[in-house]
Amino acid sequence: MTVQPIRLFGDPVLRSRADEVVDFDKELRNLVRDLWDSMEAEQGAGLAAPQLGVGLRVFTYHCDGFAGHLINPTWTAVGGEDQFGPEGCLSIPGMSWDCLRSAHVVARGWNMHGEPVEVEGTDLLARCIQHETDHLDGVLFLDRLDEQTRKAAMREIRGADWFAGSEPVVKQNPHPLFGGGR
Length: 182
Description:
The chain has a single domain, classed as Alpha-Beta Complex (Peptide Deformylase), CATH 3.90.45. 36% of the residues are buried. The protein is an alpha+beta fold. The chain is 23% helix and 30% strand. It has helices at residues 26-41, 123-136, 147-158, and strands at 46-48, 58-63, 66-77, 82-89, 92-102, 104-110, 116-122.
């Protein structure tokens, strides 16, 4: 098992856009395994490479009966319905707030062997795909909260035992809320 420490809110790597994967090699396969083992050890629904300090466009997921990984993912909303519900993050441990997301998405990318993959998800899987893809763009779900909820979230984070004390950057959402596909 190759469980790695998860980077916490305030770590600059979480605010940087990850690079496209160009080499589908042994190192990439090891990264996918590390992501999987670390996600499972923390009982997470998903984990993106930047959360392990790796600036590559890769994430794993295990939720709603679906499991896998996506490399260089893009997604598009399907049907135009939204969902508003609780969302958490392994980089913001033990906390969650209600967040607006698309209720149904289709994601496309590649697996660790360079083969094309398509994943269609609703509800929790759709939320997970959007959340993890945001991580690859340096966006945290806190950026998607309304202003009042975001301020309350920051107060709670500043009081958390795990918070290091330096004031992290929280920014307004730099991307359109839906239609995250590029």
